[in-house]
Design a protein that fits this description.
This protein is of the alpha/beta class. It has a domain at 255-337. The protein is built from ten helices and twelve strands. It has helices at residues 61-69, 96-105, 123-133, 139-152, 169-181, 199-216, 227-233, 251-256, 261-268, 308-312; strands at 10-21, 35-46, 50-54, 76-82, 88-90, 106-109, 187-191, 220-224, 236-241, 244-250, 318-319, 325-326. An eight-stranded mixed sheet has the order 6-7-8-3-9-10-12-11, sandwiched between helices. Strands 2-1-4-5 form a four-stranded antiparallel sheet, with helices on one face. Strand 7 (187-191), helix 6 (199-216) and strand 8 (220-224) form a beta-alpha-beta unit. The protein starts with 9 loop residues before the first strand and ends in an 11-residue tail after the last strand.
Amino acid sequence: MQSATSMTSPLLEIANLKKHFGQSRGLFKYDPHAVRAVNGISLTVKEGETTALVGESGCGKSTAAKLISGALAPTSGDIRLRTRDGTLLDVATLRGSARKKLWRDVQLIFQDPFSSLNPRMTVRQIIAEPLRNFGIARGEEATMIVADLLDRVGLQSNAMNRYPHAFSGGQRQRIGIARALAVNPRLVIGDEPVSALDVSVAAQILNLFQSLKRDLGLTYLLITHDLSVVRHSADRVAVMYLGQIVEENTTAALFSAPKHPYTHALLSAVPSHREKEKTRVVLPGEVASARNLPTGCAFHPRCALATDLCRKVTPQITTGSNGSRVACHTPLDEAST
């Protein structure tokens, strides 16, 4: 993995981002039982890096991806993307044609490659469609670009006239990647991009992501529940629990010395060559409902280190001297991990 330097400039800046579903919109009205899918996250993605947003199913990470891509409007908060000319664009305020322009800078790669590809279109038509929609190329010029993109993702140009059903799952994901790259995006969001693939094919796709990042200078936001994927692909990791980021750090630091008890539990389940030395942390109970969050720290009902303070006061995320961020009243120290 090729790490970006600390001098890399931010491409994406998210501040106190919220998305609540079912909330009353009338003046001074507030629904205490709204679903708080994303409940005040802040995150910076540096240009040229891979940042992973991880957590269990239902933690809000896919909703965050939809907010960043402009597919959903936030309840509140800021999403600022640095454009090609260096200015910061407020994604949350975009409408109409302005939002369409955003989709050239931010592209999504989905979990299920088959459902994201039109079965009635050939590969040539699928990849050329964004070229036409954004006025980049048509006709023979578009065909040449499609052929080059297929080569970049490891497919032969004779695949152009075939339909999605003729390809394997891994090949379909390569087609989806080629389509995303057609418009030369600044940010690529992969929403569980390898979770539907078997292990060997997933490894090939992750290696492809890395080579494309190196060759094209791409920036990735990787949405996943699989920390094994994160360990080999990400420069930085943000861990979500019930709509909030509870820990963020470089991948190496987070895996070697997690500070939040939830992160520690997740990492204890990751396969390792030191398996005999590991103690699996089994969390009690179930994840609480985002419609009815616990008081204080949302993780406290499942945390063995919870105190009365945890049950009453929501911890604020704090930044350490090494750039780590953790939201916990009783963070783990290196000796305890």
